[in-house]
C-alpha cells in the first residue's frame, strides 16, 4: 500500500500541469471506454464471460448511437480508419475530413476514447488494428464537448488485454506502378496489477489522380476559346503511428491509466500539366512539386477513484504538440514561385468529473473541461527569387484559444420503461489572433441545455423510441482565425490583379461560433436474430453560419492593388433537416420468404434524405455547403458452407446536386459512387488472409463552379481502384 500511496501522490501532483510531453496523444477511461448506458450503481468492475455485441452496446446506450466493432473494422482489410468510415451509414469523407449528415467540415466532433482529437490527428493514417470499436453518436451530451452539430464519432482504441498477446498484421495496397506495404505489430502484457499494450504501425502510399480542367478564355490571337488543361498528380509518402496504453490497478477501487499517441510522416505531391493550346487568359495552373512533413505527439493521464458504492471521481490531464512543414515549388519559365512554411500547435487539457448516485434512480455528475491551445504559422513566398508581401513575408502569425467548460448531468431512470438524461454545459471561449497588423481578441459563450429521453416499448428494450433536444455549436477552426494574407499562386505578384475564381486568402479573427438548436427523434427495433431496423428524424436551426465569401478589396498597405480576396464570414442563419433509415441483419430473418434461416448471408442498407436552407441566399439551391439531397448504402457478406471463405461488397451512392454558395457563386457537384469488395480466407482461428478492392468501376469527381459574371471552372478529377491484401496472425 505504501507504493500505491506514493504513486497516487506523484500522479496527482503531475496531472494539473500535464507534464507528459515525451509521449503522444491519448485519451483514457477506466473499464471499457464509451460503454453502455449509465449504471444506477457505481459498482466495482466485474469480469463477465460473454462479450456484448454491437447491437447490445447500441441498445443500452443512454443516447442514440451506432456501434461498429471488430467485425466491421476487419471486414475489408482496410489499412486506415478513413476507408472504414466512408462505408458507414450517414458518414462521408471529403478531402480527408469526416462528415456526418451531409454537413461540412467542423460540424462533426471527432473523439479518441471520449476526448476531442488533437490538432494534427489524421484519421486516414490510423490503422484499424489499433481500434476496439467506433461509436457514432447523434446528439451531444453534457460531459463531452458540445462542438457536435451533426454528431460525434468516438474512436475507441484497444485496451490492454487480460492475457499476454502478440498480433501481427501485414498488408499491401496497389493503385499504380507497384504495391506499397503496411504493417502493425501489437505487444500486450500483464504483470501483476499493471497491464499495457504497445501497437506500432508503419505505412506507405502511392496513388495517381487525373484532372481535366476547362475555363472560358482567349487564345493567343485574343479570340474567345475554352481553355483546356490536363494534369496528372502523383501522391506518395510514408509514416508511422503508435498508441501505447498502460493500466495500473492500484486497488479494486482505484486505477491509473496512461496513454500516448504518436504520428509522424512525410508526403510528396508532384503535378505535371499539359495545356490544350496557348492562351492569353485565363492563367492556368503550372506544374509543381510539393512536399512536407507532419508530426503529432500527445500524452494523457487519468486517475479514477471509487470512494464507495455511490461516489466516483475522475481526474484527467493531457499535453500535445503537433507540427507540420511544407515546401511548394511552382514551375514557370518566367516567374517560378516557391512557398516555404510551417505551423506548430501546442496545447494542454485538464478535466475532472465527480459522480454521485442519488437513491436508486439518479446519477448526478458535475465536472469541468479546460483547454489551452496556441498555433504559430510562418510562410515565405518568393517569385523569381524575390520575396512578396514584404510586410508579412516570413513573419510569424499566432492564434490562441482558451476554452473553459463546466457541466452538470443527471442520468434518471424514471421507471423500467422510461429513462432520461438531463444536462447543462457552459463553455467560454476566448480567441486571440496576432501578427503584423493584426492584434484581435474575441470572446464568446455558449450555454447548452441538453435533454435525452428513451422509451422502451417492451421491458427488454428490443423496441424503443429515443428523443433529444440539444444545443450545440461549431467553433471556428484555429486556422480560420489567422490574420495572415496569402496571395493566390496563379497570381503571385502583389502588383498584379487577380480573378474572382482565383482569389487570395485571409483569415477572420472576428468570427463567431455557429450556434445550433436541434431535435432528434428515432425509432429502433432489435430483432431476435441480431437484426436491426432504425428510422430517425433530425432538425437543426443554425445561427451565425460561416461561409467563405469572395470580395474585391481596395488597395491596402500590404497589397497595393485591388484584388479578389476570400475570407470566412458569418453570413446568415440556416436550417437543416433529415430522415435516416438503417436496416441490417441475416437474410433469413429480414426476408424469411426468400431465404432459409440458416443461410449465412448478412444484408445491410441505409438511406438518408437531407434538406437545408441558408436564409440569406435565394433558392432553390441555397443548401448548406456540400450537403447532398440524399445518399444510400447497400451491402452484403456471405460465408460459404464447407469453406473457410467469406465474401462481401458495399455500394455507397450520392446523386449530383447544385449549391448556391454565395449570391455570386454556384457549385454543381456530379454524382459519386463507391463500390468496395472483399474476400477473407480463414486458415485457422489465429491466421486469416483478406483480399479487397476499393472503388471498383470508379466515377470521376466532377465539379462546375460558376460566378455571376459568367466565368466558370469545370474540373473532372479521375480516380483509380485500390487493390489490397492483408495477412493477420496472432502469434
Automatic annotation (TrEMBL):
Membrane topology field: Multi-pass membrane protein
Membrane-crossing residue ranges in chain numbering: none
Taxonomy, superkingdom: Bacteria
InterPro entries: Beta-barrel_TonB, Beta-barrel_TonB_sf, Plug_dom, Plug_dom_sf, TonB-dep_rcpt-like
Keyword Nucleus annotated: no
Native source species: Roseateles amylovorans
Name by which UniProt lists this protein: TonB-dependent receptor
Family label: Belongs to the TonB-dependent receptor family.
Annotated TonB-dependent receptor plug domain residues: 59-151
Segment forming the signal sequence: 1-28
Keyword Signal: yes
Amino acid at each position: 500500500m505504501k507504493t500505491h500511496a506514493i504513486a497516487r501522490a506523484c500522479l496527482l501532483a503531475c496531472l494539473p500541469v500535464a507534464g507528459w510531453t515525451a509521449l503522444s496523444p491519448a485519451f483514457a477511461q477506466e473499464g471499457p471506454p464509451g460503454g453502455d448506458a449509465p449504471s444506477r450503481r457505481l459498482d466495482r468492475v466485474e469480469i463477465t464471460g460473454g462479450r456484448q455485441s454491437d447491437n447490445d452496446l447500441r441498445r443500452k446506450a443512454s443516447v442514440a448511437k451506432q456501434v461498429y466493432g471488430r467485425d466491421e473494422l476487419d471486414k475489408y482489410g482496410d489499412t486506415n480508419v478513413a476507408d472504414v468510415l466512408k462505408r458507414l451509414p450517414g458518414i462521408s469523407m471529403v478531402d480527408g475530413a469526416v462528415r456526418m449528415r451531409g454537413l461540412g467540415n467542423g460540424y462533426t466532433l471527432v473523439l479518441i476514447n471520449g476526448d476531442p482529437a488533437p490538432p494534427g490527428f489524421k484519421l486516414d493514417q490510423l490503422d484499424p488494428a489499433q481500434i476496439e470499436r467506433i461509436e457514432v453518436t447523434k446528439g451531444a451530451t453534457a460531459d463531452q464537448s458540445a462542438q457536435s452539430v451533426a454528431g460525434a464519432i468516438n474512436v475507441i482504441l484497444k485496451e490492454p488485454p487480460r492475457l499476454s498477446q502478440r498480433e501481427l498484421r501485414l498488408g499491401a495496397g496497389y493503385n499504380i506502378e507497384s504495391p506499397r506495404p503496411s504493417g502493425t505489430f501489437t505487444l500486450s502484457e500483464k504483470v501483476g496489477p499493471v497491464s499495457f499494450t504497445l501497437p506500432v504501425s508503419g505505412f506507405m502510399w502511392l496513388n495517381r489522380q487525373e484532372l481535366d480542367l476547362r475555363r472560358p478564355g482567349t487564345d493567343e490571337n485574343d479570340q474567345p476559346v475554352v481553355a483546356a488543361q490536363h494534369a496528372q498528380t502523383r501522391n506518395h509518402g510514408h509514416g508511422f503511428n503508435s498508441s501505447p496504453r498502460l493500466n495500473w490497478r492500484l486497488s479494486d477501487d482505484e486505477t491509473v491509466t496512461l496513454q500516448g499517441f504518436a504520428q509522424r510522416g512525410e508526403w510528396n505531391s508532384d503535378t505535371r500539366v499539359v495545356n490544350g493550346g496557348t492562351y492569353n487568359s485565363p492563367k492556368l495552373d503550372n506544374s509543381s512539386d510539393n512536399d512536407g512533413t507532419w508530426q503529432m505527439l500527445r500524452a494523457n493521464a487519468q486517475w479514477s477513484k471509487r470512494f464507495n458504492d455511490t461516489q466516483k471521481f475522475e481526474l484527467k490531464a493531457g499535453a500535445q504538440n503537433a507540427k507540420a512543414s511544407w515546401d511548394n515549388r511552382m514551375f514557370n519559365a518566367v516567374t517560378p514561385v516557391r512557398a516555404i512554411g510551417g505551423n506548430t500547435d501546442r496545447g494542454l487539457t485538464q478535466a475532472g468529473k465527480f459522480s454521485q448516485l442519488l437513491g436508486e434512480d439518479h446519477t448526478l455528475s458535475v465536472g469541468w473541461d479546460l483547454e489551452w491551445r496556441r498555433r504559430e504559422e510562418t510562410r515565405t513566398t518568393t517569385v523569381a527569387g524575390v520575396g512578396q508581401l514584404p510586410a508579412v513575408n516570413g513573419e510569424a502569425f499566432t492564434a490562441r484559444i482558451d476554452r473553459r467548460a463546466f457541466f452538470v448531468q443527471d442520468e434518471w431512470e424514471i421507471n423500467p420503461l422510461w429513462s432520461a438524461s438531463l444536462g447543462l454545459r457552459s463553455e467560454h471561449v476566448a480567441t486571440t489572433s496576432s501578427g503584423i497588423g493584426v492584434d484581435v481578441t474575441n470572446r464568446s459563450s455558449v450555454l447548452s441545455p441538453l435533454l435525452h429521453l428513451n422509451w422502451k416499448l417492451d421491458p427488454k428494450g428490443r423496441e424503443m423510441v429515443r428523443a433529444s433536444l440539444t444545443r450545440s455549436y461549431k467553433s471556428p477552426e484555429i486556422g480560420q482565425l489567422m490574420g495572415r494574407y496569402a496571395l493566390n499562386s496563379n497570381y503571385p505578384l502583389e502588383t498584379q490583379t487577380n480573378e474572382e475564381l482565383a482569389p487570395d486568402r485571409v483569415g477572420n479573427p472576428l468570427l463567431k461560433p455557429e450556434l445550433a438548436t436541434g431535435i432528434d427523434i428515432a425509432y429502433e427495433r432489435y430483432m431476435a436474430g441480431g437484426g436491426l431496423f432504425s428510422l430517425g428524424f433530425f432538425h437543426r436551426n443554425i445561427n451565425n453560419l460561416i461561409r467563405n465569401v469572395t470580395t474585391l478589396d481596395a488597395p491596402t498597405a500590404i497589397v497595393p492593388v485591388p484584388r479578389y480576396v476570400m475570407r470566412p464570414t458569418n453570413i446568415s442563419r440556416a436550417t437543416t433537416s433529415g430522415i435516416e433509415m438503417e436496416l441490417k441483419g441475416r437474410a433469413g430473418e429480414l426476408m424469411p420468404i426468400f431465404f432459409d434461416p440458416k443461410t449465412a448471408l448478412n444484408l445491410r442498407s441505409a438511406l438518408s434524405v437531407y434538406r437545408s436552407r441558408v436564409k440569406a441566399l435565394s433558392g432553390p439551391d441555397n443548401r448548406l455547403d456540400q450537403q447532398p439531397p440524399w445518399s444510400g448504402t447497400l451491402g452484403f457478406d456471405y460465408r460459404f458452407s464447407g469453406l473457410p471463405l467469406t465474401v462481401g461488397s458495399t455500394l455507397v451512392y450520392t446523386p449530383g446536386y447544385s449549391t448556391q454558395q454565395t449570391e455570386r457563386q454556384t457549385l454543381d457537384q456530379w454524382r459519386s459512387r463507391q463500390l468496395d469488395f472483399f474476400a477473407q480466407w480463414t486458415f485457422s482461428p489465429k491466421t486469416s488472409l483478406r483480399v479487397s478492392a476499393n472503388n471498383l468501376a470508379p466515377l470521376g469527381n466532377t465539379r462546375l463552379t460558376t460566378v455571376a459574371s459568367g466565368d466558370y471552372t469545370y474540373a473532372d478529377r479521375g480516380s483509380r481502384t485500390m487493390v489490397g491484401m492483408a495477412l493477420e496472425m496472432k502469434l
